[in-house]
Each structure stands twice: as structure tokens, then as C-alpha cells.
Design a protein that fits this description.
The protein is an alpha/beta fold. It has seven helices and 15 strands.
């Protein structure tokens, strides 16, 4: 790989999420990956603090936003994709299998009129699709398992893997959300680890094990050698058994029922009702059997 984008990470400690600006140094064009729109579940307040921090950086560096990309519909934070499109005019994109997630959650939320066709994004990306970030080629790898729709963006020598691999000391992502599959996640990770050893791996979350500083960058070689799951569970059967046993102990993310109704709609908040107030809709007893956290 000869082309190396400049990658700047923005860590959100509230959700342990990592947001990225991926820039082509030759042209000044960039993509924004997995931006966060702020939401406080205790007060119901929303804010654009994270997204505005990214916009300030883009302006300061004189960059032009060419893409706003999500890797999947997130379960632990709201996407700022729609907000950033309004601010920059850049097109939004996500994996084409988002329609399967939309259809699933359309039923969960009892939304008979919800358009589960992916029309909330400007482009739906399929496995193997290519595009450009400035002069740097980018391609899409379908990476399901964590969700039905998860994708990896390989931009130059950098792979944005979000909820597949974490940093080596944190292992791999859970696969027990509706539509998730530990076996599918195993296959997705194998495809990522088949990239060249010097490929830079950028993960989407860091939970700071042991209280260390947040980290988000590794390489394929480091992941193969040191990942606490992938270096230990060397067969699909062993990995799936360990992943499913671990997932059975994990409570659901605190924002999953809040976030999916925003993120399956491209990051759009619910429309205001007659009194001018927006309301989230939370189904009760939907995720039965999940550990209480």
C-alpha cells in the first residue's frame, strides 16, 4: 500500500467511542468516520459538542469534507452523520445491509410507516465497493457479526474496523445484539487479519482496561500476535464458545433502545410533536433475558 492518509482521532469518554477524520495530505479532502451526536440519557438533553469539535478541526486544517461515513447503526451513541451533512453538504454513506437492521427495528419500534429502504443515506455501500478520499483509494469490506450491517473501510493503508477488533489488550467486540452472530464475527475478523501485516487498524471503541489512557491504533501484525481473543482462540469453535459465554454475562448498552431509533434513521432525531418537543420511543421487555446492568 503506497498511499497513507493522515488519521486524526477524537475520543468521546462518555461513550468510549473513537471518531475519525481521514485526510488525503495531497488534496486536503477528507472523510469523517463514525461521528457522535451527544445525548445525556439522564436529562434527555442533546448537543453537538463532539461533531462541532470535528468541524472546528476540519476548518482549522483547511480540509474539505468529501464523505461522512458510518460503519454500522451504533447501539451506544447517536450518529452525527445527519448533523454534519447539514453543516458540510457532504454525502453520507453506510453499508447496504443497513436495510436488514432497519426492517428488524421497524418491527421492534412498531413503525409501520418507517421507510426501511436505506434512503436516509446518500449512498449504500456493498462488499467490494470502491470510492476515493481525495486521491487515496478506499474500499468496503462487509464485516457482519457485531451487527447485520457492519462494514470495514480500508482507506489507503488504514482499516477502520469499528466493532470487530478492539485494541489487542481488549480482544474483540460482542455479537449478541439482535441480528448478531459470533460465527459471522469470527469470519469478518479473519478477513481483516488477512490484510497486509503493516495495515494500520483503527478501532471504534476503547474501554481503557486497567484505567490506561485511551488507545485506538494498532496493526494487523500486532492484532494477530497479541489480541487477547484472536491469539488465544485459534479455531472458530473455540472462539464462538468463548464469545457467546462472555456475551451472556454482559448487560445491554445503556443507550441501545434510544440510539437505534435515531441511527436507523441516518442520525435524525425524532420529529417534534405538536407541542414542539421531540420524544424517543422505548419498547419495554423487548430484550428479555439480557443481564441487568
Amino acid at each position: 500500500m503506497s498511499q497513507k492518509p493522515d488519521v486524526t482521532a477524537f475520543f468521546d469518554p462518555r461513550t468510549w467511542s473513537v471518531q475519525y477524520v481521514v485526510a488525503d495530505p495531497a488534496t486536503g479532502k477528507c472523510a469523517i468516520i463514525d461521528p457522535v451526536y451527544d445525548y445525556d440519557e439522564k436529562s434527555g438533553q442533546t448537543a453537538s459538542t463532539n461533531a462541532d469539535r470535528i468541524l472546528d478541526f476540519v476548518q482549522e486544517k483547511g480540509l474539505t469534507v468529501e464523505w461522512i461515513l458510518d460503519t454500522h447503526p451504533h447501539a451506544d451513541h447517536f450518529s452525527a452523520a445527519h448533523y454534519l451533512k447539514q453543516k458540510t453538504g457532504a454525502p453520507t454513506a453506510i453499508g447496504e445491509k443497513v436495510v436488514d437492521v432497519q426492517k428488524l427495528w421497524k418491527g421492534f419500534y412498531n413503525w409501520p410507516d418507517f421507510p426501511a429502504d436505506g434512503s436516509q443515506w446518500d449512498r449504500l455501500l456493498a462488499d467490494g465497493d470502491t470510492f476515493m478520499v481525495g486521491s487515496i483509494p478506499a474500499r468496503v469490506m462487509f464485516s457482519p457479526g457485531h451487527t447485520l450491517a457492519s462494514i470495514t473501510y480500508v482507506i489507503g493503508d488504514a482499516a477502520f474496523v469499528h466493532d470487530t477488533l478492539f485494541m489487542p489488550d481488549s480482544g474483540t467486540a460482542r455479537a449478541d445484539f439482535p441480528g448478531g452472530s459470533a460465527a459471522a464475527l469470527w469470519a469478518s475478523i479473519q478477513a481483516i487479519l488477512a490484510l497486509p501485516d503493516d495495515t494500520r487498524i483503527f478501532t471504534g471503541h476503547d474501554y481503557q482496561p486497567g484505567g490506561r489512557e485511551p488507545l485506538w491504533e494498532s496493526t494487523v501484525a500486532e492484532q494477530k500476535a497479541k489480541n487477547s481473543h484472536m491469539s488465544k482462540y485459534l479455531t472458530e469453535a473455540d472462539y464462538v464458545a468463548a464469545r457467546e459465554a462472555r456475551d451472556a454475562t454482559l448487560p445491554m448498552p445503556k443507550l441501545i433502545l434510544h440510539a437505534l431509533q435515531v441511527n436507523t434513521n441516518g442520525g435524525r432525531l425524532p420529529e417534534p410533536e405538536a407541542n414542539g418537543t421531540r420524544y424517543l420511543k422505548i419498547p419495554l421487555d423487548l430484550l428479555k433475558g439480557a443481564p441487568w446492568g
